[in-house]
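> run fold SpoIIE family protein phosphatase
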Amino acid sequence: MADQFFGITDTGKQRSNNEDTFIAQWAAKNDMIIACVIDGVGGYSGGEVAAALARESFLNRINKAASGDVIPMLIESFNLANERILKDKQQADERRNMACVATLAMVDIEKNQFYYAHVGDTRLYLLRDQSLVKITQDHSFVGYLEDSQRLTEEAAMAHPKRNEINKALGFESDLASKTDYIETGQSPFLPGDMLLLCSDGLTDMVNKQDITDILTASMPLKEKCKLLVNAANQNGGRDNITAVLVQNDKASSQHEATMPSSSSKSKGEEAISSKEPDEVPMNFKRKTSVAIPVLTILMIVFLGSTVWFYLQGQKPRVIVEQTKVDSLIKKQRNAQEVKLQQAIDQLKGHILLLDTSYKSPIVISEAINISKDSLLIKAKREMVLQSDSAYTGPIFILSAKAKSLQLDSVAFRDCQTAVASRNQTVGLKNVRFYNCKTAVQNYIEVPEKKYINGKIMPLTLKADSLPVKIN
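> ok
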């Protein structure tokens, strides 16, 4: 029972202060585990204060001797924290912009349940059967795109607006009247399950698969938390990094396949056993008649087919249930954009020629990710790339690995952003834009509170009525 929870926070590689904080402890009545991650917003003089006020408010309310349902208590905790932050903002002008985002969970291991409340872009994950499921939604523009499968995880991690949030404690007053502002929920927490609460300093730096690999490794929770922080720092450590793990360390139950019964199982408790059904005892005496062996074979076939059909019938139920929780059904990309993304990913050199095998326009429903060091995309004749009517992200997005993208003889139509870069080189030759809100969005990152020296050079773009001759 000792290795049930652990929390850690780290400043990261580029920040001089830590605006994150966390809770990982037993509640005062010692019947539930409190797990929480809080990420402050508002700079050195504000973010840390907002996070500290929220943490204190949560603990005071949860540890207050009172009975009642858990979810209302969590909502009240968030309301109290919001009021304290708003009040403090009015008393100190230098903290007028402070706020915080938070994910708070109460875990009842004895009853195999957890409850949570959430505002912002900190996250809550559930690890079950080696699969990591994102429970909370990110209250941000980029988070919405990722959760709705408009952006891949990699594109979301590199998106220039990934840190812009829509909700936080300290943004608005009277949260009690805004019933949909605080996200809440509860779920079974089965033996062997694990919860991860973390700040975006982890998830912006480490992808889901790498996090899963660390969480499923055989080691204490403390070591897993350290590895998560190390992985984020190795990938750049651009923000503060905080992770809290809670584990239901009771022995996992193994369920064999049984015939359906009238009683229904609770959500998440259905399991498919890989074990074969127990052998049916056959107490027949050996006789010379062929009837008994034939009947025996028929009974075995009947029992085997019954179990097989039952197991086949069970599988879709489990898949559907996991899909409801996971919300990870991939939106089917059309053949043209799949072909374009695969051509870029599999390209051996640095020049991709868009020939007549691509049908114009290429409709984009998810950002085309550029991860090559340098790439020239050139069309034999003008090739149009057009956003799907429901897609609002960029057509091309340059990952941290890319250094330059050159575009020759392509056109962009009906898009919010044609190219999103992270201060990388973007070259345009005979490129046209039709009804595009932003042609090239260039996001420049600098270390916080450091002296910055340099120069932002003016763009050298020239508009021509006729195309430049293509060599």
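The CA atoms of residues 126 and 133 lie 5 Å apart.
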